[in-house]
C-alpha cells in the first residue's frame, strides 16, 4: 500500500513537472519567436523590387522558421496537456498535423495583419497591442488561474505577473490555461481577433500604395489563411478530439 501511494505521488509530481515545463517552453517560444516573426514580416513588407532577391529569400525563410516554431510549440504544448490529463486520448499523428496547420494558419494571418498595419501606421501598433493585452489579461485573471501555488498557498502578486505574461501571448494566440471546456472561449477569442484583423487590414488597405504588388494578394492571403485555420480547427475538434469516456451514441467533440 505504501509503495502504491509513493508511486502515485511520484506520478503526480511528474505530471505536474511536465505541465509546467510545457507551459514555460511555450511562453519562451512566444516571447522570442512572435516579435521576431512580426519584425521579419514588417521588414519584408518594406522591401522593393530593387532589393536583392537573395536577401528577400533569406528573410522569408527566417519568417517561415519563426512561424513554424510557434505553431509547433503550441502543438507540442497541447499534446503534453492531453498526455497528462485523465480521460483524454493521446493525440494521433493526424490530430497533430491538423493542430499544427490550424495554429500555423491563424498565427500567420495574425502576424501578417500586425506587420502590415505597422508598415503604414508605425507606432500606433503599440496602443492597439496594449489595449488588447489589457483586455486579455483581465480575461486570464477572471479564469482564476493557479500558476503560483505552493503548499496550498497562492502567491497573489506572482500570480498577477504570470497572468500578465500570458496576456502578452494572447496578442497572437489563445492559450488554454485551465483544464476546462474551451469551445466558447475559442469562439469568443477568434471572433475578437477576426474583428480586429478586419479593422486593421481595412486601415492598411486604405493607406497602402495601390501600386505595390502585394496590395490585393496580402489582403486575400490574410483572410484566406485565417479561414483555413478555422477549418482545420473544426476538423480537429470534429474528428480527432475525443475523450476516453465518450460513447458512440454521443459523438460531439469535447474541448479541453
TrEMBL record:
Q: Does the keyword Cell membrane apply?
A: yes
Per the record, the coiled-coil ranges are none
InterPro entries tied to this protein: XK-rel, XK-related_scramblase
Indicate where this protein resides in the cell: Cell membrane; Membrane
Q: Has UniProt tagged this entry with the keyword Cell membrane? A: yes
Transmembrane ranges, per UniProt, are 54-77, 123-140, 188-206, 218-239
Keywords from the UniProt entry: Cell membrane, Membrane, Transmembrane, Transmembrane helix
Q: Which Pfam families does the UniProt entry name for this protein?
A: XK-related (PF09815)
One GO CC term on file: plasma membrane
- Which superkingdom does the taxonomy of this entry point to? Eukaryota
PANTHER family in the cross-refs:
XK-RELATED PROTEIN (PTHR16024:SF10)
Which protein family is it in?
Belongs to the XK family.
Under what name is this protein listed? XK-related protein
